[in-house]
Amino acid sequence: MINRLNTKLMHPRDQIALVIRRIYERGMTTTSGGNISLKDEEGNIWVTPSAVDKGSLRPSDIVCVKSNGSIIGKHKPSSEFPFHKAIYEARSDIKAVIHAHPPALVSFSIVRKIPNTNVISQAKHICGPIGYAKYELPGSKALGEVIAKEFAKGFKAVIMENHGTVLGGSDLSDAFQRFEALEFSARIILFGSNIGKPNYLSDEQINEWEKQVPSLMPEMDVVEHPSDEREKRNEIVKIVRRACRQGLMISSYGTVSMRWKGNDFLITPTDVPRWDMDIGDIVQIKNGKRESGKMPSRATWMHEEIYKKNPKVNSIIMTQSPYLMAFGVTNEYLNVRTIPESWIFLQDIASFEFGTHFKSQSESKIINNKSTAIIIQNDSVMITGDKLLQTFDYLEVAEFSAKSLVMGASLGEMVPINNEQVEELRKAFLE
């Protein structure tokens, strides 16, 4: 049974422990690095403790600094608490702050650059403009002042010179989505630079993407949830959470669907953090109508057309994974003739220009494409298959293949499996 992690209803100490664990397990901070705080309705600030292992932090370890300055908890507040407090004083709309040292953003901080979030479709909207704070001694009043000054300008994301990054949000989920999207943008810029030159979307292209609101399909009058439908809901949620844990999906982007009966299917919703998705969030699409009271993914129309025109496709995953997106932001050719498994499963990965996935392009070649995997430039990768677990496996294989190519780029020219070897694979596995 999958239960909803409704973070907004969790106690502040539980929210903080959950999010710092996600950050640590995804390799975006170290045992000793990073800190999180949350300001509650009474003005109290809940914050991670100083000198406590981030990999095993428990809710009982979280410290509360009361509005009157008194401290409740068995540990000292984080040594960086002064700049958390300074941010809250500078911005009344900020209710949560995340500070960490994720590798890609640290890379930008030590070369004195800010990542261009126009590299993927949704990041600019989520991250907003990004500030830059000059180096000051960690834990010092001066550091708090330079960071608060950037937040006072309206920024919710700030690169800290030779240090890391700090992000704020209206709640902890909002701050985490911003943190995750910014680090992801930095990673694909770095990975893309290993194999080519990253391309960026114009503001006009991003605005067009933002206009692609989910289709207001008519609502069903009656919704039924027989056992086979409920089983598929569970499968979808398990795969979404697995993808998040493995870094193959981030909070702000990812769509998964499964064919149910005929051309009816189930699909993930829009504007629900992928980490916290629940079976009750999944949207049923039946006879061209949506489950009442729910807003399906903005890509629902595309999934619907693919199911109609491709009877052998029974599941679809659209996501952003870092190494595949390195090819998705450079338009470099992803040659999957790396190892036999890659070619057998994928054979070829087609690439399409940004915008060909808009609903206004309903006759797009994407709909009729027979490739197992495709890349939509600066937007996503789409994987299709029969069983959902099989489709997820294809995603993993594609990502591993892309990772091998990105990592091997500095070693020399790739030598792929030759045509004769490919023909042997074709005869042995595909005929």
TrEMBL record:
SUPFAM superfamilies: AraD/HMP-PK domain-like. It comes from the Bacteria. Residues 14-190, 234-406 form the Class II aldolase/adducin N-terminal domain. Keywords: Lyase, Metal-binding. Transmembrane segments: none annotated. Signal peptide: none annotated. It holds the Pfam family Aldolase_II. This is Class II aldolase/adducin family protein. The lineage of its organism: Bacteria, Pseudomonadati, Bacteroidota, Flavobacteriia, Flavobacteriales.
